[in-house]
């Protein structure tokens, strides 16, 4: 075996077809995919340098201002191409600004005197600390929304705030998890399928809402109908996971991916990571801030 199949860089040299069952194969591949798209320590360091550069620039303009990073950077739930969300707390009355940092190409959103994003990040961090398997499930849902172009609120998509309050509901209230029959960390594949089934097929969006702080649905107490749309999922996203026996159609000598049709890694993401790797190895930011240059890295640029 020389490497992963084309289009599946997350698979490495692992042969899923030798595993005991389809659910185990699916869960392992999803874990490998989450590991692949999660930020490495080098990527996070480069993003921290971008934050330092933004903070320095703001301080040069308004010495009394405070710069706070919030959103997925604070919770470590960002994807390879995610933007920063920064708020500047000052007396300045300036609208939202957006730009791409010139060295790395990382997009940055800057708002002024808006603290609700900071509060939301603290809530999401609490969820992650309390609910098993929430981080990988959130990463998978966010990536799915991104590649389907459903992750931008201004385009009618689902933003991180809404996603952050949908994701905890299933693992927090799943009956099999509550009674201890299954470990969510070992059943990530089943959880993801049931997440899509719940919110894509079964959830009554006209009669049920989701509370912010207490996981679980609540029934709306008035006769108003909630005007809402949701992402539809077709049959190819529903992988059968009801057998503990081997499937002869999937278990073969070559590597096979169960998620390639749903999760893909476009070339622009791979190129972006390669660019981050080059910036890290060149020591551009290290020289700028007087930090030592490291000549090795752990970036996933395959």
Helices and strands, with pairings:
Layout: H1 22-37, H2 41-61, E1 66-70, H3 72-75, E2 84-89, E3 97-100, E4 107-112, H4 116-130, H5 134-147, H6 160-166, H7 169-173, H8 175-178, H9 188-202, E5 208-210, E6 217-219, H10 267-282, H11 284-289
What are the main properties of this structure?
single chain, 302 residues, alpha+beta, 4-stranded mixed beta sheet, two-stranded antiparallel sheet, 11 helices, 6 strands, 9% strand, globular
- The radius of gyration over CA amounts to 21 Å
- Terminal-residue CA separation: 16 Å
Overall shape: globular
Low-confidence stretches: 218-253
Give the rounded overall mean pLDDT: 75
The level of helicity is 40-55%
How big a fraction of the residues is strand?
A: 5-15%
- Biggest sheet, strands in spatial order? 1-2-4-3
Per DSSP E runs of 2 or more residues, the count of β-strands stands at 6
Helix and strand content put the structural class at alpha+beta
**How many distinct helices?**
11
Topology as a string of helices (H) and strands (E) = HHEHEEEHHHHHHEEHH
Largest sheet: 4 strands, mixed
């Amino acid at each position: 075996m020389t490497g992963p199949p084309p289009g599946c860089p997350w698979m490495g040299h692992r042969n899923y077809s030798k595993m005991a069952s389809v659910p185990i194969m699916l869960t392992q591949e999803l874990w490998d995919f989450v590991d692949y798209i999660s930020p490495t320590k080098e990527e996070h360091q480069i993003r921290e340098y971008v934050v330092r550069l933004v903070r320095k620039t703001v301080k040069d303009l308004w010495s009394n201002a405070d710069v706070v990073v919030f959103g997925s950077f604070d919770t470590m739930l960002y994807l390879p191409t995610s933007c920063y969300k920064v708020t500047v707390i000052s007396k300045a009355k300036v609208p939202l600004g957006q730009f791409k940092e010139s060295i790395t190409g990382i997009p940055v959103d800057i708002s002024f005197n808006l603290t609700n994003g900071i509060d939301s990040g603290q809530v999401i961090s609490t969820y992650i600390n309390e609910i098993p398997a929430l981080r990988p499930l959130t990463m998978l849902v966010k990536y799915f929304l991104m590649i389907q172009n459903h992750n931008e609120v201004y385009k009618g998509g689902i933003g991180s705030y809404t996603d952050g309050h949908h994701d905890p509901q299933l693992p927090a209230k799943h009956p099999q998890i509550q009674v201890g029959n299954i470990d969510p960390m070992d059943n990530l594949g089943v959880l993801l399928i049931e997440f899509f089934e719940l919110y894509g097929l079964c959830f009554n969006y006209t009669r049920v809402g989701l509370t912010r702080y207490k996981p679980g649905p609540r029934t709306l107490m008035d006769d108003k109908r909630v005007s809402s749309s949701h992402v539809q999922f077709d049959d190819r996203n529903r992988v059968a996971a009801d057998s503990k026996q081997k499937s002869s159609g999937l278990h073969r000598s070559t590597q096979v991916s169960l998620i390639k049709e749903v999760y893909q890694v476009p070339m622009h993401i791979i190129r972006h990571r390669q660019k981050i790797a080059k910036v890290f190895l060149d020591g551009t930011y290290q020289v700028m801030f007087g930090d030592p240059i490291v000549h090795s890295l752990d970036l996933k640029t395959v």
